[in-house]
Batch of 4 targets.
Target 1
Amino acid sequence: MIYSDKVMDHFGNPRNVGVIADADGVGEVGNPVCGDVMKITIKVDDDRIGDIKFQTLGCGAAIATSSIVTEMAKGMTLAEAVAITKSQVAEELGGLPPAKMHCSVLATDGLKKAVDDYLVRHGREPIAVGTIAHDDPDFDPHAEDDGEHAH
Amino acid sequence: MTERSVYLDYAATTPADQRVVDAMLPYLTEHYGNANSMYRLGRDASRALEDARERVARAIGAARPDEVIFTSCGTESDNTAIIGLATAAGRTSGHIIVSAFEHHAVLEPAWRLGKQGFEVTELPPRPDGTVHPDDLAAALRDDTVLVSVMHGNNEIGTVQPIAELATLAHERGALLHTDAAQTLGKIDFDVAALGVDAASFSGHKIYAPKGTGALYLKGGTRMTPYLIGGGQESKRRSGTQNVAGAVAFATALELMDAERPAEGPRLAALRDRLVDGLLGRIEYAQLNAADAPVRLPHIANFVIPGVEGEAMLLHLDAAGIAVSTGSACSSGSLKPSHVLLSIGCPVEFAHGSLRVSLGRYTTEADVDYLLETLVPVVDRLRQMNPLYEKMVAGLAGAAD
């Protein structure tokens, strides 16, 4: 399994690492038993993502997808941010090995959660709810992986 | 950032020793004959092959040279032994016991037999990383035909009490096979002292090339051959023999045995330096199977709570260090190491395991370089972990 140069760049020098202390929205997905956890904090200005930071426990792809999704989302409107797909994240990184595609779901789900958290805090309707894979109790992040492996 | 290259994954594979390569090369170029041909080139090859067989038989304490079957690798030896011994004499059912932390080269054939009429018991090791004789005694049945327990575990380096286990198996009429890929040459290994019926070996773990291996099969033991065809190796393993590989295997094993009196203690001291250094410098780190009564001198496996193994491995790779991890992500599988889970390591910590394995060319400076590189890598990854505080809450053993 070989990572693209861009994955290795974002893994080795991740952008926007950290926690925004007075965040407007917080999204946390995954759990340590699965081996990956992501937390995104955002500041929102005029319905755009003004600042964004992340923390991730996970493999190289999990860290790289987290990093690139923060770059992609910064400056986007909330509606644009929640529309980022896992394929766009993988594409932006120059591709991911098939067994690692699920890592990009962690990143997009974390972002969606943070946006919805912001909206709910402000008494507004969440816009990503229903599209967050990790909210599904039957969600299997590895389901689309190589079918040889039973989960 | 550095051009330094430090290989600390000798349990995965070893470089071929130049002395081994020198010994084998003439059998690739000059003495290239097929060992089964009658003319001189063939006879020369056959002599070299049988000489290698005698040397291996002597080194492992076999009663006769023909108890040694040359194979292409440890996996072939394991597959041959498990399937060939279980199905010997046309048997289609029976009970098989394998330890739960066997290499997949043993587990997979056992599972296949389990779908084909055999009943398979996976015997869990105890938390000290050892298969306890009492547990085997309780699992043995009158219809148990085969027990397979690895001699030294490839991930955690614990050594199993094979002689005791073999006695118990024999008392119930079962055969005992041991996967000795990690122990041959590393610690004393004698088939007679261990009392095993079959044992698997791999050349590339002892500084011979990949693609070499051997299977010990005690004289008189019935086994259905796995590779069939030309009837080589006394009809127990068909396929033109890899004469150069057999010469390499024998040479490599003799070097291991000759150098072990000095090399064993040297590696054990390096391992202890590594264990002490790592546990002393990385908060909450633990040595897996720390209570094992006997362990290999060259393998140490740690859990480093709050980090993920693949990320750790990639950062170390960037600094020129090669190690391995039992995290799910590193292997392309989904669950972390079945070995670590079998000894009770919590899943979330198994994702953060680190196996360091030392060998012939490892120096103190290599170990120290790993330690000084690892500390900031772990700090960095832990700082990026949103749940770090939660994950280590309640863990003892803070470094000071």
Target 2
Amino acid sequence: MTLTPTTSTRTSTRTSTRASTVPAPPPRGDAAALLDVRGLSVAFPTDDGVVTAVDRADLLIRPHQVHCLVGESGSGKSQTARAVLGLLDPPGRVSAGQALFRQADGQVIDLTTLRPRGRSLRHIRGGEIGMVFQEPARSLSPMHTVGAQIAEAMRLHRGLDRRQAWEAAVEALQEVRIPRPELRAKSYPFELSGGMRQRAMLAIALAGRPRLLIADEPTTALDVTTQAQILRLLRRIQEEREMAVLFITHDLGVVADIADEVSVMRRGRVVESRDVYELFAEPEHPYTRMLLQATPTPRPGPISERSAVPAGAPGPATLLQVRGLTRRFRLRSGLFGMGRTELQAVDDVDLQLRQGETLALVGESGCGKSTLAKCLLRVEQPTSGSITESLHGTPDGAPDRTPRARPGGLDVATAPESALGDYRRRVRMVFQDPFASLNPRMTVRDILAEPLRHAGPVAQEKLVELLELVGLEACHLDRYPHAFSGGQRQRIGIARAIATDPQVVVADEAVSALDVSVRAQILDLLARLQDERGLSYLFISHDMSTVEHLADRVAVMYLGSLVELAPAAQLFSRPAHPYTETLLSAVPVADPVRQRSREHLPIPGELPDPTQRPTGCPFRTRCRWAEDICAEEAPAMTEVSPGQSAACHFAGEITLRGLAD
Amino acid sequence: MLPYMIRRIGWSLLTVWLISLVCFFIIQAPPGDFVSVLMADAEAEGRRLSSQQVQVLRERYALDAPWYMQYWAWITGIITVGDFGYSFRWNRPATEVILEHLPFTVLLAGGSLLLTWIIAFAIGVFTAVRRYSISDYLFTFLGFIGLSVPNFVLALVFMYIAFRYFGMSVGGLFSPDMVEAEWSPAKAWDLMRHLIVPALIIATAGTAGLIRITRANLSDELAQPYVTAARARGQREGVLLMRYPVRAAMNPFISTVGYAIPSVISGEVIVSTVLSLPTTGPVLLGALRNQDMYLAGSFLLILGVLTVIGTVISDLVLAWADPRVRRQHSGAAS
Amino acid sequence: MSLHSPSRPVSDPAQDDAGRRSSRSLIWRRFRRHRLAHVSLWVVVAVYLIALFADVIAPRSAGAYDAEHPYVPPQSITLTDPGDGRGPGLYAHGYTQEFDEVSWNRTYTKDPEELHKLGLFVASGHDYRFLGLIETDRKLLAPVDADAPFYLLGSDANGRDIFSRVVHGTRVSLSIGLFGVALSLVIGITLGALAGFFRGVVDTVIQRVTEVFMSLPTLPLWMALAAALPRDWGPLTIYFAITVLLSLIGWTSLSREVRGRVLTLRSEDYVVAARLDGASRFRVIRRHILPSLTSHIIASVTLAVPAMILAETSLSFLGLGLQPPIVSWGVLLQEAQNIRSVITAPWLLIVPSAAVVISTLALNFLGDGLRDAADPYGGAVK
């Protein structure tokens, strides 16, 4: 890596900034600005020189307005916000620029000139500017109750005594819509769900009645339904309190949902700053255009325009047939670990994967989609059920040494580990985390050769060919994984998966950890490989927008159960299960016009604890259609239209909204 | 919480049983049983034990039975009547000898542990907050020196300095004029004065490790988002430091007690020997040198059991102090 | 937090040589930043070289005594030319002895007139086998006149040269540390890896056993076991027995460390990937788990060596470890136990103590640096 150390001192940069290099902030009546960030630079001195995280950024936030700051990872968006509040992690420091904040009394002060630990900045923090962070789980101290942490903020900024502060904390929890706030105030953060933690964080940030709320990726770690709830709450409070919000995110869908104004950041610079409708309609900067292009938006239009697999017709051959697949985990509890709590991670799932198709498996965290994928490859041992394979041919031309006849129909669920070798060469896996899935102590050559070793020495040409297939070069063979970026590593992971010339690739959240632009490239690569090699994909994802773009069929899971299985076009336009409807309603569409004209369904409640699954239909506790029967009887999958089936007692009787509605 | 406590205590009973087996093995290790050693000793002094005496002793400790019967006789004696066997060196029941010396050991070990904590806490917090400063390096260096200098060398150096430059003869737990005196505040103070230096010497060894753990843990905790979050709500630096990260980083203080006790006891044995303090150390050493195995084995057993009790208490305190640990043990899911 | 400066391209390994760096070279690079550890590495190397070449470096054998020179203070060496035809070179000062018949006290005063010429690789007249192979009598630094008194760091009550004894002791003390740790390592790694990899009952049993050993106060236990050794064993047998004893109790922390690492590693994605690639269980352990462990194991081992040296020293000091005529640092310190003799000859305490402190300190720093550098992929450089 090459680094050009920035040696300029703060003052010299300041003068040069003032001189000309940066375009002046948009002339929109700066007098009205609540926060006016001018030419802000943040530098991190490291051993290899000074890294400039934020480079002369300008940002103008008006009162009563939601201002979104968008950018990919490393663009400096979080550092900008932290710099404003003097919260940079050492050794980071503001090297140039100003952050002019208009206080309640009308006085304007430059926040970057205040001492980071001084009294005046402490008053601003929480009192004038509140902040919410990305990871609610780690932003609350695990050693103290939620109520104590809210009360602390109350005492700091409202001058309340201990008892008053506690009461105010309970009230604040009520305001952020946490049920049973008296009880919840006494809970420790890890006893709450992710959504509730983020609500609690919001209560803390709002305790001092700030006029500006900085929300740093507040919904990134949350599930999509929880995200929708939090966004709605945030918007409501912002309107009620006439507060300004600086909302930092990488997700253009969220921007389309919540922003009044948008600034786009790239490599430390603000490249574009516009009204949200203008920005989406006619982006000016090429980077903004690229971002918008790379972000999938649901294709509008009726079903007929889209290619749906003709149902009933003799479709392509089934490669994998999953029947009644169940995976239970036993958790120890009680005296001497004798008590057992059961967790039904995957519950009686039937599924088939056909030749050449992309089957997407979607659902929120803890729904069992990853466990299902692991069962398919026998990384996890299924508790019961069968996985029958009808794969054909031999992978990578190696002699088939297993003595069974083809087509065999091996039951993968029960086969001994030693009999799985051949199967595991036909069904391969791409992992979610491109950093954890490559052995850091092996070169790319060794990593790619590992699955080919069984057939004897591996030819250099074969490895080069693999690398070139995924868009890398021969010279990368002898490098170690640490030399590659996330996207490049994921390409290596894909090359490893296709090395054995498989028929099925299981991609477990394979693009979730990647930035939007890189994600689009990897998805393109996957699509190309599918075309060229006739691969079947089992694509596991929590991101409905991505799934909408590439899946042929979609399976929706909720609390371990399969609730709906349908051709993609059908599922997105006419879902048959109320949970699918809820999920679709919660997905933010990356188009402010469409997103804001959609009708948003109320999303009640929270995902239940997986160890305490509701009786009957797992979704009934949050379903607006639920009736008595739902609690008594678990609904079976029933076909509502050709190729589309749902596990709902009222499937087919109720009309549900699709993504475009 | 209660199931956890019961489980924890159950496991420790198993540990204690295994320790007792090890101790018994050590008692049995020297060739010949103790009665024959006793007889030989008596003969050397020109006495003779009556065959009746010999018979009583042999039966009491089941010396003619297989080893597990002997073990049974030994362990039941300890549990039911507190009979730890007979010290032929002191010509007294081992129990008496132990009871005489154990309180000082506990006092000295407890004092060293306390000192270890105080020093490690202060330096650990300071170095974590001032990471990579000159003082950080200095204290870390000092800690390592403490770790690398053997306890007894420190004790010897201390004695040398005291003798050479102050003309004092150190050693013992009381000034000469206090040894026979009745217990009084003055005598307690005299004891304290004599304890502080040995305690400090023992503490040097354990402190470096604990400083390192504290520094590493606190550094991790300081980088946690909840610290930034507390800062972002306008809390004062000093208050938030103590209330959040330091509180969370305190766990090792409690959890390492269990493992610090063996090292403190080890230190106590050797330092007491050098400084000739009337604690278990020199007695144990003497017992081992003279193959007075019942006394030695009993000391070992008691020290082991004390350690186990310390570990159990530290685990329970940890569960009480840290909601995360509490939850982990309550068997809740996820 | 990832930082990308405008000047830093996301990553282009094609143009970047860092990509070819193996984990070993990355570890070495990180290690070198820990300056104290880097210096310590050379100190440790030097100490081990002294142990290896003890015969050449020590001017005398460990047991050589001279009743005429008890408690001689350290001699000073000067580079000078006495002008008596012996030529310029290194000379050691002599002492004049006075013996007080009443108090039986010997006093030494430096005699500027008496100079003993020193030479490099001089023949000492005492044959030994260099590295057990070549018979020679050369010594690195010794008086040219083999009978001249030469006590670089003083002598003890029997007129034995402390410097020579400490150098010979280095060999014993360091080798005990090394062998003891090697033995601990075998036990610790085997049990730790078994517990971590197979989990279940195997793990529970091993964990219990480890816990029992950890809750025993080590020194008393060592003392007891050492005392239980038969009295009629020869010094060499005792030496090996002590080594085995130390390692039997020292393996616990290593085993815990290994177990913890294996537990984390076995659920790493890349280990799962290796399984899916068709690697056998043996290959998964050898090729994917062990390489990630080695650096941590080396660090732990380095930290275990000084602990074992201290343990040997303590045991020998108490008279329960090695016995004369074997010379170890602990044995030397045992001779310094008597405060009277320390008052007379402080070097009896200072010299072996310094040897112990310098080597354990260096080993501790080395281990600390290795531990910090052991995981070159674990986030940013602190």
Target 3
Amino acid sequence: MTTTPTRSPQGAEGLRRSRRSGVGSGLFAGLSVGSGALILVVLAAVAAFLLIQAWPALTSAPATLHESIAWFPDKTSLVSFVGPLVFGTLLAAAIALVIATPIAVGIALFISHYAPRRFAAGLGYLIDLLAAIPSVVYGLWGVRVLVGQNGIGQPIQQVLHDVLGFIPLFAGTPARPARSLFIAGMVLAVMILPIITAVAREVFLQTPRLHEEASLALGATRWEMIRMAVLPFGRSGVVSAAMLGLGRALGETMAVLMILSPGFTYSWHILEAGKQQTIAANIAAQFPEANPLGVNTLIATGLALFVITLAVNMLARWIVSRRAEFSGAN
Amino acid sequence: MAQRIDVKDLNIYYGSFLAVADVTMNIPARSVTAFIGPSGCGKSTFLRTLNRMHEVIPGARVEGSVSVEGVSLYSSDVDPVAVRRQIGMVFQRPNPFPTMSIAENVLAGVRLNNRRMSRSDAADLVEESLTGANLWNEVKDRLDKPGSSLSGGQQQRLCIARAIAVRPQILLMDEPCSALDPISTLAIEDLIQDLKDEYTIVIVTHNMQQAARVSEQTAFFNIEGTGKPGRLIEMDDTRVMFSSPSRKETEDYISGRFG
């Protein structure tokens, strides 16, 4: 057999689709379309599961819920039961995000633009390792180091209360031991730090060299260069990174369950104990003891969490797209 | 305003690799000086040492002296950031900041020096710089649109406007027309002619006709082979360089017998 390239003898006949390449690209197209469709199917399946399972609770009268579920509070409808949980979940996630995002952006900038290259790689690796720590270990750490006797959570809370007590958020008696939403939020912040850092770092590293040099050539210092070129370029990426972190914070269960002393109010006092609870931690806490209707009720709260997460993501996309014209993608 | 540049015995390294060796030249003020030569001969690298932009690349360093009006750029008490504010640079590919509007792009450099600027001063400066860059009439109705919405040639003129808005003394241009079509190239060349009354302009170009059209002095760089450093072969008045160069390499390159 010779290995000379085959030439179509008919000239223009060679332009026709060959059967072999058609099979390959057809298979690949099928696979990728299939994977894309699978995502939608899974999402729809989860939504359907939540709706069907929550249906008995959604359609029951408040009195029925109260009668058959031991832990269901008196004189409350399902909505007024879910309300404080949604509030607590959002507040905890917001605290985590407010603490974690600036730190994560700082670390990411340090790794991408300040640290010596060899050191940066090691540091990035260490940050990624934080993501590998199981959440129950974070919970233990929070309980022992922040909450427990002589924990550092109490002095931190006391200082915040003394200095910023005039802000309603930090009013109210700081909890002792520090089983407050603020401490739970701190632990959540450490947990979401790696994902935000990793995504932000990748985005910052992709800042076009051209834009960095443009600002340096105008006489920008390194920090000014970061402000002119890197941060604007990375803006939408940082929002996406924060949303990934927020997604994790909203659904995080174990650490909150172990740290927070739960309560079911719409209280802004994040330093107090027994005021708030998150949806995920509440499900984990009540599920073992729940009867069938109780499970339906918990799944209804899970449905609320699902909706919140979708809404938050859509909001973030909308924020990013508002200035898409200036994003540098064109 | 415009200043002259004197370079003496300059060696440029990337790490331990000698990229450009032993350059000595004097660039007069208020004139256009062109650097020509084959790819990889170090003319862009050399240009970047004139405002200390080459230091941005890790491991890059120089030996020798570059002085502007007698002040050495590489003495230890000179701040590279201050050098770059005095010596503007325009790059090969237009690089307006995509997240800023046209007006913000023009003001980007000025805002670094002088944050508090009244609205009317800023508007005046935008108009003056864009007029100086021959772009005002094309963009005056859409100053708040992103810089990246302009055509390539317009973007490059926007970059020139951004560079001259800080009123530098020297303007370095690194193949400013290589990504542009002939009409935009012509617009930039006209602009260079206008700007040379006020600025010392140094331009790197691959296009020998362009060097002949716009410059008063021409410097020819060459490289002997891969791994060897680039060198300045000769520098003279552009007319002399293109009619009767004194070195054979120059003549070969200019007449297309290179290689």
Target 4
Amino acid sequence: MAGDFIPTQPIYLQLVQRICKQIVRGDLSAGEKLPSQRDMAIQVGVNPNTVQRVYTELERITVAETRRGQGTFVTRDEDRLLRLREELMGSYVAAFLGDMREMGFTLEEILRSFKECETLGLSHE
Amino acid sequence: MENAIVSFQNVSKRYQLKDAVQHLSFDLPAGTVVGFIGPNGSGKTTTLKLMTGLLRPNSGQVLFQNNRVQRMMAEHIAYLSDTGAVYGFYTVRQMVNYYAGIYRDFDRDKAAAMLEFMQLDGTQPVRTLSKGNEGRLKIVLAVSRRAPLLVMDEPLSGLDPLVRGSILTGLISFIDLDFQTVVLSTHEVHEVEPLLDMAVLLDHGELRAMDYTDHIRETLGGGILEWMKQTLV
């Protein structure tokens, strides 16, 4: 079982994010079929009802679509997938900035650190 | 609750002079996995036995599919107790056959698939099974029944992490929530949490809280363990 979930967020949301990341990374491509609910449940070690909720949420945000009797598929809508990429970046950057602000860093300091990392080649790690 | 499969209505149970559970009232929705948690002596085992008809309440009533629970309900409720339930003088396969003979809803194909999944040898005598494999066999026997309600008392207790993992994966693989409801009690809160739709917290024989696990995380920003600690303070 790969049940690595953080306790601070509902498991179904963590799975939605995990699948969105796989799509953005290209591990799942446009139009690709997602595992059946039961197979997905076994793979990630969660209740099948949770997977149902995950697929419903992916449909709601139009990242996936369910075809009756065939299963759930990643959308073929390339525009939607491009937007997903932007949304994912936006949410990670926002979370990062939130953390940094909480520790008292200014935007200038953060940008300077970004550039230092870039010149040191750390950003490609 | 409209789709309740189990309903407790102001249920109390006393052993001699000791109150085991008091004024329990709750409904469990069909098609879910429900975990009963709470410290030792909080009344989990008593509650599960009342649910299966193995115990009768002193007051209040326990309903299963809108009927009052009786001993006869064993035909519709698969129960895995925290003790006993297997016979040392049988082989694994004989034990499966014995269950298949008693329960009309026993699914032999499912049992065979589960034995393979759990890597149990049908020819091995039950008395020579390791504790882990005995735990696995008990799961096979309970889950192979196509019963609408599956009640398991501490299915993971005393087992090592690998066995616990295989039991949990086995449960996910072989239960069918389209027509089954699963109720289990456990101390392994963290490990079982991803399997639960709902958690019920008992303490000193009383219902302290019950909620959907997603809702707990949404509102508390923490898992069931945190919820349990905060509620029992």
